[in-house]
Amino acid sequence: MNYRHAFHAGNVGDVLKHVVLLELLHALHRKPSPVHLLDTHAGIGVYDLASDEAQRGGEYRFGIGAVLADPAAQRVLARYVAALRALNPDLAPGGAGLRRYPGSPWLLKQGLREQDRLTLCELHPQDAETLKANIGRDPRVAVHHRDGFAALKALLPPTPRRGLALIDPAYEAKDEFVVLTKAVLAGLQRWPVGQFAIWYPIKEQKTVDAWKTELARQAQTETIAVELTIRAAKNARQMNGSGLLLINPPWQIEQTLQPMLDFLKGRLVREPGGGARIQTLVKAA
Ligand SMILES: C[S@@+](CC[C@H](N)C(=O)[O-])C[C@H]1O[C@@H](n2cnc3c(N)ncnc32)[C@H](O)[C@@H]1O
């Protein structure tokens, strides 16, 4: 396990993932009934942007840095910017004052209501310890040092039954897409009413299209893909963008996400051929 998210925190992929995640959470919270949130690949929860790791590649500058540079971000991405401000009280329009970047566990935890539950899984031993320290003790939150793919079998369906599983692997292993697909389908079988949000890298568009089309076909339930590429996705050797596959998405989430995606496209696309889209893979029954 070589992957450490500290090198990538706040990058373009994180921005897309976290903007969408907060909207999914908001949609779940339209009803007062409790929800269970499962984050299978949690990371450490909070990232210091001044750390050696974050500074080394400076990926956050092309992600959250580029987004906040436009003061319109606080209007278009209101929930996301509010969360950033909760973690960075000195955050000013334009992005000054951004010191820490929230990971998915922090974002999910800050949105929890009394009746909700959050389960976090992280396999890296040191990161699991840091996650526990960063997220703190909270009776609504369980932190597990365990394999997130196995958790999709072992921990689903959750109590309460409504909720969301975020699956955000490191894609280090050659067979990660295969393992992921099996685990998601097993999880969906155990929890057919659950929402699943799966983050994936886009190197070559046609390869990733084939994967998600097949996963959606097997899932046999409403599935959409939300994607943002910073350049044409033709070179399999480099990261050209990322997406979130949403299985059982909230009703009409596309309408909420489209203006946000348009804004992100304007801020984050770096070369010709990049873009953003929402694609319906399986329509609602
Ligand atoms: C992309 S990062 C997660 C980032 C996090 N979800 C966020 O948005 O802030 C992937 C994490 O998965 C962890 N990991 C790798 N393999 C895992 C597995 N099989 N089960 C659980 N965690 C794993 C890595 O240590 C890494 O921290």
Can you walk me through this structure?
The chain has an eight-stranded mixed β-sheet, with helices on both faces. Strands 2-3 form a two-stranded antiparallel sheet. The protein has a single domain, classed as Vaccinia Virus protein VP39 (Rossmann fold, 3-Layer(aba) Sandwich). Helix content is 41%, strand content 19%. Helix 7 links the parallel strand 4 and strand 5. By secondary structure, it is α/β, with parallel strands linked by helices. The longest helix has 17 residues. The chain is built from eleven helices and ten strands. The N and C termini lie far apart (40 Å). The protein binds S-adenosylmethionine.
* CATH topology-level name: Rossmann fold
- What is the annotated CATH architecture? 3-Layer(aba) Sandwich
Number of helices: 11
How far do the termini sit from each other? Answer: 40 Å
Query: What fraction strand?
Result: 15-25%
Q: What proportion of the residues is helical, as a percent range? A: 40-55%
Roughly how many Å is the radius of gyration?
17 Å
Reported for the largest beta sheet, the result is:
8 strands, mixed
Give a summary of the structure in a few sentences.
The chain is of the alpha/beta class and 285 residues long.
Descriptive labels:
285 residues; alpha/beta; Rossmann fold; eight-stranded mixed β-sheet; two-stranded antiparallel ribbon; binds S-adenosylmethionine
Question: Would you spell out the secondary-structure blueprint of this structure?
Answer:
Blueprint: H1 12-28, E1 36-39, E2 46-48, H2 52-57, H3 59-68, H4 73-76, H5 78-87, E3 100-102, H6 104-110, E4 117-121, H7 125-135, E5 141-144, H8 148-154, E6 163-167, H9 176-190, E7 195-202, H10 205-219, E8 223-229, E9 241-247, H11 253-268, E10 275-282
Parallel strand pairs: 1-4, 1-6, 4-5, 6-7
Antiparallel strand pairs: 2-3, 7-9, 8-9, 8-10
Helix pairs in contact: 1-3, 1-11, 8-9, 9-10
The chain binds S-adenosylmethionine (SAM).
S-adenosylmethionine binds next to helix 8.
